[in-house]
Amino acid sequence: MRIPCPFCGLRDGVEFSYQGDANRTRPDPVSVDQTVWNDHVFNRVNTRGVHREFWLHNHGCRAHLVVERNTVTHEIVSVALARQFVLERKP
Amino acid sequence: MAEYSAWQLLKHAFTGNTGWKEAWRKPEPKPAYEVVIVGGGGHGLSTAYYLAKEFGIRNVAVVDKGVLGQGNVGRNTQAIRSNYLLPENQHFYELSMDLWEGLSQELNYNVMFSQRGVLNIAHHPAQLDQFARRGNAMRLNGIDAELYTRADVARALPGIDMSPTARFPIHGGFMQKSAGVARHDAVAWGYARAADRLGVDLIENAEVLEFIKDGDRVAGVRTTRGEIRASKVAVAVAGSTSEVMRRAGIDRLPIESHVLQAFVTESLKPVIHTVATYGGGHLYFSQTDKGSILFGGDIDGYNSWAQRGNLPVVEDVMAEMVTLFPGLARVRLLRSWGGIMDMSMDGSPIITAGPLPGMYLNTGWCYGGFKAIPGSGLCFAHTIAKDEPHRLSAPFTLDRFQRAYAIDDKGQGPTPKWH
Amino acid sequence: MMRLSQGGRIDRSKTLHFTFDGKAFTGHPGDTLASALAANGVRLFGRSFKYHRRRGLLGAGIEEPNALVTVIDNGVREPNLPATLVELKDGLIAESQNRWPSLGFDMGAVNQLGAKVFGAGFYYKTFFGPFRSTRVWHFFEHFIRRAAGLGAAGDVPDPARYERINAFCDMLVIGGGGAGLAAALDAAKAGKRVIVCDLAPVFGGRMNWTGETEKRDALLAALDATGNARLLPRTMVWGHYDGNTFAAIENVASHRQSLPGEPRHRHWVIRAGAVVLATGATERPLVFPGNDRPGVMLANSMLRMAAEFGVAPGETFGMFTNNDSAYHAAAALAAFGPRCVLIVDLRRSVSAEMRAIAIRLKAELRTGHAVVGTTGSAGLNGVHVAPVDAECHVTGTEKLFAVHALGMSGGWNPLIGLAAQQGQKPGFDDTLQAFMPPALPAEWRTVGAVAGVGLPAPAPVLMVRPKKPLDKAFIDFQHDVTDTDIDLAHREGFIAVEHLKRYTTLGMATDQGRTSNVAGIARMAELLGKTVGETGTTRFRAPFSGVSLGSIAAERFGHIMPNRLTPMQDWHTANGGDTYAAGLWHRPMAYLKPGETLEQAYVREAKAVRQAAGLVDVSTLGKILVQGPDAAEFLDRVYTNMMSTLPVMKARYGLMLREDGLLFDDGTAWRLAEDEFLVTTTTANAGKVMEHLEFFLDCIWPDLGCVVTSVTDHWGGMALAGPKARDILSTCVTGAAVDNAALPHMGIVHGVIAGVKVMVARLSFSGERAYEIYAPSGHAQRVWDAVMAAGAALGLVPYGLEALGTLRVEKGHVTGAEIDGRTTADDLGLGGMLSKKKPFIGSAMAYREGLVRDGRLQLVGLKSLDGRALNGGAHVVENAAPQEPAESLGHVTAACFSPAVNAYVGLALVRDGRKRIGQNAFLADPLRGIHMPVAIVSPHMIDPDGSRMHG
Predict the structure, then answer these.
(1) DSSP string covering C340-394, please?
(2) Do B100 and B193 lie in a common domain?
(3) C241 contacts in A (CB within 8 Å)?
(4) pLDDT tier for residue C951 given thresholds of 50, 70 and 90
């Protein structure tokens, strides 16, 4: 697998570490609604197909990326910087 | 008289081997069954068998999107053990160990359970202490375990690098002698045939497209071979759990599907006589009766439904193998493959009624499901038949995550790639 | 077989000596082991897997299933090599396999008598006995294991070096035959960087044995002239991974004497832009009784042996075919001298062109006929031929023809493996009777024979069926799969290709089904009344063909993981440090004096720390710089306790939880400035904590003005602890006051030691008055030396991990043994550190039902009551006598001899442990046969009010 890092270019997958499902948004930190927290911490959509996920370029620039990747073909569909993605997602 | 035996082999040999029956029938699906089990792998087939055998429920169908035994039951590294740390896991896997010991006779099918022992190699005094904690816990729960000295390890694994200058010198080990391996395909086929002979319909090439509901209640499945109604629908589809459950309207589960690769060398005369693991990295290996070394390591570490992995793990696993056995460096890798693992959030399985009325779920085996097939089937059948959990599978609920009763043998928390 | 006087690429002017099964032979440079043995008249190369049948050469290349040998190189064994791929070198030692006592007389051949019993999957039906036990199986398994297996591996460590290389190219051409070279030339001319790999020592593929070597040389010269092509001979591309990443193995030196420093093999990882698959095709055998007799070979392999290696099959040969390629091979082979006396063709009619070839060769042509049996004891000397109908049923009487060799051609299989490794399904071409490459991505192309170009159209794949066969007809030669095995699989319902493969082992041999799959699948298709295409094929998997484990391990063979060394590593080993690998780090357990045991050494060291002072290397602790206007806010969110209230130049102990509310890590945060903190982590969790912090900054709170930087390797660290620590520090540090007022517990100062700028924080893991001194890594040894010198007169000793552990156990400080991923802060007596004033990572889930219930394991101290040592991993029980099973109340997490308590003590996690303090219990360690009484005590075994460290 090769992932095009916005900073470092097309790099081998071995340089990155998978950081999980990027479809989740963290609940309000002051909330103690256990159903909401349980869903966030323990549940996953686990898409068969194009899946949005975080990757850390840990042997490169150490930026987190939001990668859309097909979990059946491993094809990388899109890559964005996580910071930018998260800032834009926020209302 | 038993259908399979040495005598029968001789008898059939004299009649040109034309008298053997189909291992299992290829029936047309009936419109309705008492129980439909989705997933014709090890867990689905053993569940069907125990439903018929132990609970008298024979009006059962197992449906599979392909042919039987083509998921993880046919692509694992065959190890069978109960050397877990936590008591819930120990008791649960020991139930399977007990069933394994009589399984060939029970099924009248040689599953080749070979109790050649599973040896975890330790490379540091602290690592040996951790194994001791596990082994003592097992002993106190009535399960066999022993500590191995360096010399014991050298005796058990001739050719292993015992050098004190190795990167991770061998310090000792932890052995469960009753553990071992079984022939994976034989387990699937043995359960399939035994279930078939008890009247269970095994329906291949019937993919579940959606679940039929009566109100809230799941009342059957619509498959590529037509509608099949059932009072109870059980799902045991391992790596495909999330996708199958989505067809029942369940969108999110504590499961991630990951790819695990496995490897086999060309056939060799016997050189490795036990199952063993390398404590300096992540590697497990044994040698099949046909002579191939069967081995594997870590999951690739990302969500995947591809049944194939990537090169870095291949390189890791080969490096670990030859680090332990520098005399095997010129042995050749014959084949690699991948399976989709239903990685749960605490590394332990889920066996439960629900999450919808009329539905039962068996999942979360991570990459240790093969050894659990007998116990899982028995407990899941119990859950389905009696609508209450078996005593030994009672801790493995779906709500344990929210309630903070996780069964986390590795202590890694809700990050599946670390389990 | 015999050596021709001329022809081929062997150098007859030079002689090479080698042995096979201890017997001496000679050959020539350019020979393979197979061709050299054949030239010496050897016909018997091996024994089959199950029936131990006598087997000769079937092929001439990678497809060879029969002639497997073990090559022994300075005692290192390399089993299962096809002799057709072993390039001959002087002094080569090779052995045959899977035979006892000898290849010529093999006791295992007795298995043939039981062949009717030993059909497909027979072992599933027997060997287990009627009674619940695994004993019967264990008994039989013992013998089965010894009988199974091909070659024997050895235990002499391989001294060879292997190497890995990364390569990038615009186009990767896999296969350097005519089609591959032409594609490479086009691309290279257009300025593309091209890599061309070929299995063989010489490029050209078929051109090497079809008389086109001049064309080959012209292509190669033109390619060379472009300057854009890199040609890798003896290189097998074996794996296709995501992102057009290919794994290939180059045989650098195993075919000759290696040069100093040269790797034996090179593991190539090639990232390609475009891919040209030019892997060619291999010929298939025909399935007829006796088709495995030595002397029966693939038709074009027979030609290859003559054209490439100057080895003729014998004075006369016959051909048995279902397609035209055997005619061309016969004609080409006859040009080298041997006479073609017979061509048997399953087809009723053949073209005028083929008839003309037969006439020209003066060969008897039998169309609509089949070879229905073979004769000969040492090797083939004749074939029985009979007429057959369109379904290959024998319809007439047999006639015996004398031939010395028989070439067979059952059609061709394109080598599509690499194109299908990603899981795409190959389709079946009814004209070529072959599985073809699946639909491929746009940047892939297939050229030449793998795309079907130039392949003959054979008759449908059918096996020859006499009414009463004289012998077995083999489909899978190596695994002895015959037509009756396929029939049995069908009868028993193992009809899906995956079931067929697993039940019969069809295609699972070292040739990976290249010679067997199509015939086996075709037989099943026939039984099912389906087409071969409908029946399908099994999934193709890496590797394309066998690759040695050491080659893939490459440089990591013997160097499995990098070593992380602290700046003081050399000092430790020079001063008796007994170092152990812990993760990637190497750390001294203790500094052994001559004659000391480890326990004596660590007890001495721990005692010295409590009485005077000790110095320990703590460079391995994770160190993370947290900077920015929101640094304090960020740390408030990640630590359970408040960090924003920490004054500048003060440190604070902190806990981190996971999101699920369980303990994650502990460490200290040092506030170096309003907007700058240095955070320390445990050694084991350094990487994980860094990723955790980065994750939250990038993915959860990108709005925070804060950055984190790992500085673990930038700072060497040492902890100076003990009542004399301040005295020692004050004599060596300048530029900072270190008295209790200037540097109280948890204070930080900047100073200079031995000319090196250092940071000193007064922190204590040992429970003593203690200082962590951080110096830039490159100067840390200098600082260490200065501190040691300053303490020499005051009794300062270096101490290792064991003493460090002892000091912390006495004090009840926790580490990874207690923060094991299952414990809460409260379990370890640290519940008070969970702030109620603010949310933090894990706060929402930290008080869930299961985390606050009664009966959780809690941290306690243990003290031996009978003077025996506590063992790590022992369990706490109530039963006074050893008993199994017994109820475990918990387990020992750490144990040592405490000089301060003057007893063996430990820490343990015990169910409702805090309520049990003051009670006695027992330690059960059945693994080591120890059962002993212990007292459950407070984990804070010394100085519970902290006066020593605060003083």
Answers:
(1) EEEEEESSS---HHHHHHHHHHTPEEEETEEEEEEE-SSS--EEEEEEB-TT-BB
(2) yes
(3) 1
(4) confident
What percentage of chain C's residues is helix, strand, coil (to nearest 5)?
25, 30, 45
List the chains bordering chain A where 3 or more Cβ pairs fall under 8 Å.
B, C
Distance between CA atoms of residues B369 and B349, nearest Å: 8
**Interface contact flag, C79 B266, Cβ < 8 Å:** yes
B253: which chain A residues are within 8 Å (Cβ-Cβ)?
Answer: 43-44, 46
Instruction: State whether B44 and B59 are in the same domain.
Output: yes
Query: How many independent structural domains does chain A possess?
Result: 1
User: For testing the chain A interface, which of B245, B303, B348, B402 should be mutated: the one with the most A CBs within 10 Å?
Assistant: B303
Binding-face residues of C in 492-531 toward B, CB within 8 A? 492-494, 496, 498-499, 502-503, 505, 508, 510, 512
* Residue C377: per-residue pLDDT: 86
Residue among C267, C496, C884 whose CB faces B140 most closely: C884
Is some CB atom of chain A closer than 8 A to the CB atom of B257? yes
**pLDDT 10s digits, C350-396:** 999 999 999 999 999 999 999 999 999 888 999 999 999 999 999 99
Q: β-strand B32-38 against C650-657: which pairing, if any?
A: unpaired
pLDDT in tens, C902-936: 999 999 999 999 999 999 999 999 999 999 999 99
Q: Is the pLDDT of residue A90 over 80?
A: no
The per-residue pLDDT of chain C, averaged, comes to 95
What number of C-beta contacts closer than 8 Å exist between A and C? Answer: 67
Kindly determine whether residue B4 and residue C124, on different chains, have CB atoms separated by under 8 Å. Answer: yes
| Confidence band, pLDDT 50/70/90 cuts, at residue B268 | very high
Tell me B328's DSSP state. G
Instruction: Give the total number of structural domains in chain B.
Output: 2
| Structure token pair of residue B107 | 């099924």
Contact flag C659-A41 (C-beta cutoff 8 Å)? yes
- Give dist(CA B226, CA B217) in Å, integer: 19
Question: Among C698, C838, C840, which would you mutate to test the A interface (most chain A Cβ atoms within 10 Å of its Cβ)?
Answer: C698
Q: What CATH number should be reported for the domain holding residue B237?
A: 3.50.50.60
Let me know if residue B408 belongs to a domain.
Answer: yes
- For residues B244 and B378, state if they share a domain: yes
Task: Quote the mean pLDDT of chain B.
Answer: 96
B113 touches chain C (CB under 8 A): yes
Is C253's pLDDT higher than 70? Answer: yes
Q: What is the CATH number of the domain that holds A40?
A: 3.30.2270.10
What residues contact C440, with CB distance under 8 A and at least 6 apart?
Answer: C419, C424, C446
For A39, the domain range is 2-89
Cα gap A18→A41, rounded to integer Å? 16
Q: How far is CA C461 from CA B172, C409, C774, C927, in A?
A: 57, 11, 77, 62
Asked if pLDDT for residue A91 goes beyond 60, the answer is: no
Is position B96 within any domain?
A: yes
Which residue segments constitute the domains of chain C, with CATH numbers given? Answer: 2-123 (3.10.20.440), 285-410 (3.50.50.60), 569-620+714-807 (3.30.1360.120), 622-710 (3.30.70.1400), 855-951 (2.40.30.110)
**For residue B67, what are the domain limits?**
28-82+85-108+184-254+346-418
Assess if residue B16 is contained within a domain.
no
Give the closest-approach CA distance of A1 to chain C in angstroms: 4
Give A31→chain B minimum CA distance, Å.
15
Please state which of the ranges B10-14, C349-353, C514-518, C936-940 shows the lowest mean pLDDT. Answer: B10-14
Distance separating alpha carbons of residues C460 and C428, to the nearest angstrom: 12
- pLDDT given at position C261: 86
Among all residues of chain B, which has the CA nearest to that of A39? B252
Contact state of A12 with C245 under an 8 Å Cβ cutoff: yes
Q: Which two tokens stand for residue C624?
A: 């993370």
Is the same domain home to B200 and B338?
no
pLDDT tier for residue C865 given thresholds of 50, 70 and 90: very high
Q: What is the pTM of this model?
A: 0.96
Q: Is A58 at the interface with chain C, CB within 8 A?
A: yes
